[in-house]
């Protein structure tokens, strides 16, 4: 029974990591910074900062607050150390380029929304709709399969279309899927599948163009630093999403027992709020990507801004009306 439990989901990565390790050992003359010394002090501060932040935002007590505050102070110290280091692990000078910051934020937003969405949908289907774990896994596979199928296509598409446009359109798909997820309240299964398809399309179209957009902004010698910052942005999105998910989930479900019908409406309400947060994060990324493309053409910028504003306000208005109606109806019948 050990190899048929949830532990297999972690053990399956061990052979994959080992294979990658031996493959990378065979890569020669690839790295442009291989002769530089490692910033040991900066690396240590970074690891401790990330660990404290990741753990602190997932526990809701005094120690959690202390750990988060400590991680903030360590982050400030890390920035000062990196500015003085001869060979910093992160070239913070890259952040002076607004376009580079926009690309990294978009990457963070993509991973942030995806992580929260999968967690929220899993709990909703398991405890509210009472689906089996096997069936939930099949449903959640829809988005990753579409993402894998579209990744190569989106990469080739960047040869003909500006990567910012592709990434912005991808964020529009993700934003739409988050709006649809915010309606989760005993809906038809086809509705969820459609939302998963939109999310998969958005995720599949996003990664390759955004990576190309970000890395094309720097010189060849700065590619390792730019790539590491981009990867950190993605990981930070997952860490932050886990903390926010835990916080909102704990606020609404505190004292309740998952699976109890008396807390189903609280689980649905917390899901609505998390998806609205996702929608806002995705919309900001979409707007910034379009702005980055259109800032040299004010007519195009105005058109895109008007479209984004109408799209955003219409979606949020529907979400908030849905939540208000949901709360009133629950109050009326309880």
UniProtKB/TrEMBL annotation:
Topology of this chain in the membrane: Multi-pass membrane protein
CC terms in the record's Gene Ontology section: membrane
Protein name, as recorded: MFS transporter
Organism: Methanobrevibacter millerae
Pfam families recorded: MFS_1
Keyword terms, alphabetized: Membrane, Transmembrane, Transmembrane helix, Transport
SUPFAM superfamilies associated with the record: MFS general substrate transporter
InterPro entries registered for this protein in UniProt: MFS, MFS_trans_sf
